Amino acid sequence: MLLQILSHNTRYLRSQLKMTQENLAEASGLSVNEIGKIERERVSPKLIVLEKLSVGFDREAFHLLDPRLDSHAALPVQGVVAKAAVRELLELNEADQQIVWDLIRSLRRNGHSRWKER
User: Fold this and answer.
1) Among 86, 80, 68, which Cα is nearest to 5's?
2) Quick one: 76 exposed, middle or buried, by C-beta within 10 A (0-12, 13-18, 19+)?
3) C-alpha span between 38 and 45 (Å, rounded)
4) pTM for this one?
5) Over the stretch 78-111, which tens digit does the pLDDT of each residue have?
């Protein structure tokens, strides 16, 4: 499900920001091929790729995983706490990153209504 959300949100944000895959590749440091695979749900990206996408879009990484993104258009990067959390996640080893993804999926599935923006 998260892969579908990321794929949709990547295409949606590129469209809203009038960016080509090439523009996003340049802004994020990812290849056009990687962006295409994300948009077509052909790859399950690591957290570092999510962080690079967030830099390319100038958005917090968690916005890219928000199933309601197109309803509130993701705010520009603002949260120092969120940035610090993403940096911490990127320092985890791959097994621990997978635990975080599993936790996010579980929270989204079971407690999504509790995640409110402040």
Assistant:
1) 68
2) exposed
3) 7
4) 0.61
5) 455 556 666 677 778 888 878 887 777 777 676 5
